[in-house]
Amino acid sequence: MHRTCRSLAATAAALALGVALTACAGQGGTPAAGTASASAAATVADHDDTDTQFAQMMIVHHEGAIAMAALAVERATDPRVRSLAERIEAAQAPEIERMTGWLDAWGEAAVMDHGQMGHGSMPAAGMEMEGMDHGQAMGVLDALQGAEFDERFLELMIAHHEGAVLMTEAELEDGRNPDARELARAIVDDQTREIEEMRGLLASD
């Protein structure tokens, strides 16, 4: 009888300890699943107007680069130029998808009205190439063939890349979202390297 009572008491104490430890796990060193999810959601949502404008304008900018690169893949006579154009397409298409996903998660419009470009912290000059907009630049390229096309494509893509680097400055200075800032740094690194490559190709002609 006494042994049975002692056994029941020990069992009750063990259960109480287990409940207490479980509660502490939700509050202490190892975060509960709900806490981790909330933290991840907060990171995704953590953005400001600079992040939004960066993603919106860089999507448009990347789309322009891809259109120019696609034309070069079809028309360039120098295999080095074609190879560069293929790499530009392959690199920038996934970045467009990534930025579109951010805007969707942030509840922001995926497309910015062209009339709004340059009215925030992002410079509208980054969208131009030698004073031309994308449509004008594509018209120039479309009228060329052979080595003339290759040379003009490189010149305009250098200007286009320089515009992208210019556009990242505001994001790196004022942007808040860590993923957007990371992409901005990658754009600076990748496109600066490609600018040097294109200058080398022009100098070798």
TrEMBL record:
Membrane-spanning segments: none
Domain of life of the native organism: Bacteria
UniProt signal peptide: 1-25
Keywords, in A-Z order: Signal
Keyword Signal among UniProt keywords: yes
Pfam families reported in the protein's UniProt record: DUF305 (PF03713)
InterPro entries: DUF305_CopM-like (IPR005183), Ferritin-like (IPR012347)
Boundaries of every DUF305 domain copy: 51-202
PROSITE patterns found in the cross-reference section: PROKAR_LIPOPROTEIN (PS51257)
Protein name: DUF305 domain-containing protein
Protein source organism: Cellulomonas flavigena (strain ATCC 482 / DSM 20109 / BCRC 11376 / JCM 18109 / NBRC 3775 / NCIMB 8073 / NRS 134)
Biological classification of the source: Bacteria, Bacillati, Actinomycetota, Actinomycetes, Micrococcales
